[in-house]
User: Fold this.
Amino acid sequence: METRREQIYNTAGTLFSRRGYAATSVRDIAGELDLQGGSLYAHIKSKEDVLWAIISRAAEQFLAAARPLAASDAAATVRLRGMIHAHIAVVTGRIEQATVFLQDWRYLSSPRREQIGALRDEYEGLYRTTIAAGVARGEFAPTDPKLAATMVLSAINGVHAWYRPAGPLSPDEIAERFADMLLNGLKVEGRRSKVEDPTSGRGGADGD
Amino acid sequence: METRREQIYNTAGTLFSRRGYAATSVRDIAGELDLQGGSLYAHIKSKEDVLWAIISRAAEQFLAAARPLAASDAAATVRLRGMIHAHIAVVTGRIEQATVFLQDWRYLSSPRREQIGALRDEYEGLYRTTIAAGVARGEFAPTDPKLAATMVLSAINGVHAWYRPAGPLSPDEIAERFADMLLNGLKVEGRRSKVEDPTSGRGGADGD
DNA sequence: CCTACCGATCGGTAGG
DNA sequence: CCTACCGATCGGTAGG
Assistant:
């Protein structure tokens, strides 16, 4: 039993994720539901309220999934792996809402945009803190936690752009491979000290 | 000596990168140049032509920077590092155009959108091929080159969203750290042989 | 490059 | 939830 308003949110999520908020009209949304444009306003207050409903819920889902993992007393490696799995689960589980959250939050007007910005900062902080703890414990190599958190989040946010439920990898399989690559790196030798690469004839130790 | 048309492209790049293509009007662009809206059409044919000029140039810059690096006979590790540096140099050197390229290409209409899609595929292919070569040579751990290329590109594309020229890190410093993290991973131990990883409950994992 | 304008569409409302 | 409408704005053009 889905209320009309929830139907509007879902339809808008689909259209916003495809065309973007600015390029989607209220008549587009109404048309998908076989309504006249003005009829939407019996259920919603404004187009931006619909965007807000989608984005604020998505933000809370990301945070609700990550907070307990970040706060657990497991090893940082385990926590970070769990957070990557949780993030990709949210992205793939509600891909349209997640896409709108990631791509259209700048269209919120002023008090709301800053609210979402604060939630994004909090979320990134969970990653930063977890990585910093891993560095402090010697689990992670010395690295800038802020830069590392930004990179990890960029990598896993990208999933929304290409994931298809019919694809060959499940969300957990994607998360496992992403976590492997992010934690262990691509290179066989891994990191320990910055020794030179023996397969390189051109002096790889000298960063460019 | 910048032609009026180039001024229009630059101004549009700034506005499109900030507000998005769909939410930027031709009158917004004209206003920044102290022109009337209709006056733009003495220099351009359509709003979409402006978008196309920005995006097609950006796509060519990314490709022109990466092609010779991908084709070199250096070690895959060296090639991939070089490609990451080149990519971040393009993103940071023309950040507005790069942002428009990354965020607004879906607003191109049909023949052009597919053209850009093909260039994006070619570009991703350079990363995929380089990573696959690294795996074949034993430089990289066994991994799905397609997934790895997608992840690396997502990570380095994210730079456009937060890079500021006044920030503490130069583009090359950012690239060096990103390459370190992507190639060597976050963990101190690094990867050696996947089958012996005690933190993974799922063995196997080759074969796709 | 401006003035003046075109038809179309926008988000939203009144009154039923 | 519909009909009918509001003022504003959209991309673009004619004619100078």
Notes: The helical segments of chain A are 4-19, 26-32, 47-71, 76-93, 95-104, 110-136, 145-157, 171-184. Chain A touches chain B through 59 residues (CB under 8 Å).
